Amino acid sequence: MKSERPRQLSTAEERRETVLRTAIGAFAARGYWGTTTTEVAKAAGISQAYVYRLFPNKELLFTAVVEHCFVQVRAALERAAAEARGSSPEAVLEAMGDAYALLISDNDLMLIQLHAQAAAVSEPAVREAVRQGYARLVEYVRGACGGTEAQVQEFFALGMLCHLIVSVGADGIDAPWTRTLSRGIKHY
């Protein structure tokens, strides 16, 4: 006789994580405006009603996805700072920049960041989530590297430039304009 184990139900927190992971892919592919909660629910294998129980509306689901991505970025920067080849601001920023370049080779994460910035223009809750995410990252980077305002600003400016280079595939084009934009920037 076959022994059957009792079915273990997932907790609401496990379901919430499943929905978040699923929503990252959905929102990365179609953006804030192009993604429905029905699509997220179907991809996660749950009902739309259950999605709404976990996230009362699409705006809250998307801002949770944005916050989740900022947490991933922070974790990657923390690991890089801890493993930097020195303690100077330049060494720490270089290590963090390398880690970020590797992180955005995951197109979903980069696309969420780009979609969030686009949606922030007209969606106040998304704008606030992006503001808060960058506020925490800037303060973390400032504290971790001990660099000047100009160094921290350059770090974030180069990150935005990396988004542009990767999103338009400039690193795969050998032209004067792409060499100018890509000079000194590492891509994965």
Radius of gyration: 19 Å
Distance between the termini: 54 Å
**What class would the helix/strand composition place it in?**
mainly alpha
Q: Estimate percent helicity.
A: over 70%
Most strands sheet? none
| Oligomeric state of shown chains | single chain
Number of helices: 9
* Strands, count: 0
Envelope shape: globular
Overall residue-averaged pLDDT value: 92
The SSE string, one letter per element, is HHHHHHHHH
Strand percent estimate: under 5%
**Low-confidence spans: pLDDT under 50, at least 5 residues?**
none
In short:
With 188 residues, the chain is an all-alpha fold.
Detailed description of the structure:
- The protein has helices at 12-34, 37-44, 48-54, 58-82, 89-103, 107-120, 124-145, 149-167, 176-182.
- It is mainly alpha-helical and 188 residues long.
- The longest helix is centred in the middle third of the chain and has 25 residues, at 58-82.
- The protein is globular, with a radius of gyration of 19 Å.
- It starts with 11 loop residues before the first helix and ends in a 6-residue tail after the last helix.
List the helices and strands and how they pair.
Elements lengths: L11 H23 L2 H8 L3 H7 L3 H25 L6 H15 L3 H14 L3 H22 L3 H19 L8 H7 L6
Helix pairs in contact: 1-2, 1-4, 1-6, 2-3, 4-5, 4-6, 4-7, 5-8, 6-7
